[in-house]
UniProtKB/TrEMBL annotation, chain B:
GO cellular component, one term: plasma membrane
PROSITE patterns, alphabetized: PTS_EIIB_TYPE_1
Name this polypeptide is given: PTS system N-acetylglucosamine-specific IIB component
Keywords: Kinase, Phosphotransferase system, Sugar transport, Transferase, Transport
InterPro entries with a match to the protein in the record: Glu_permease_IIB, PTrfase_EIIB_Cys, PTS_Glucose_EIICBA, PTS_IIB_1
SUPFAM superfamilies (UniProt xref): Glucose permease domain IIB
GO molecular function, one term: kinase activity
Domain PTS EIIB type-1 per the UniProt entry, residue ranges: 3-78
Organism from which the protein derives: Prauserella isguenensis
Active site: C25
Coiled coil: none
GO BP terms in the entry: N-acetylglucosamine transport; phosphoenolpyruvate-dependent sugar phosphotransferase system
Amino acid sequence: MTGAARVVCSPVGGTVTALADVPDPVFSQAMVGPGIAVEPRDGHADAVSPIDGTLTTVHAHAFVVAGDDGAAVLVHLGIDTVKQQGEGFTLHVVKGERVRAGQPVVGWDPAAVRAAGYAPIVPVIALDAQQEALRAAETGTEVAVGDELLTWND
Amino acid sequence: MADERPGQILAALGGADNVVEIEGCITRLRCELEDGSVVDEAALKQAGAHGVMKSGAVVQVVVGPEADAIAEDIQDLL
């Protein structure tokens, strides 16, 4: 894509939080790409796709959506939640499926994740992007699910 | 085209005999090893790892979004 910026929507509703505050070095040190995080609101909800594209990776607790231009966004529902082995997560999609921004991908409850001893924060990563290419919503502000969270220029 | 990374990563983890379990998780390989002390971090980075986190016998190798595919390839080598 040239010229226009990609818009990355928030997969969950909650409070915009700096990636540096995520308790996992893979995300806080931007090892797989820059981005932003959202501290989700409690209560059962669907996490949605942040962009139009194809689901290239799907786990119960995390997924990657690649746009037609190859730009891919990683959404990780909580930290170390792989250890929950899918419990409490309800997948609405399969790998390879095409999704639209805002389409429900996984149902979950951040309060249940916290009760199980994990941080429910949701890193949203622009894979292999340059930090300068991203503009993120201001930390500390509230976003609703589907609100603009990042813009990503090349 | 053959990808050399799975073999290089496995060697840097101390070889198949040292691997108890290996699992891909979106961006990283979660490896449970017999002996975490033999891990060659420099070789892992040379094989393309963005980062390595060690906690005793559990080693996480951050390889990026191809982690799931690399983990499957390493499974095939075990």
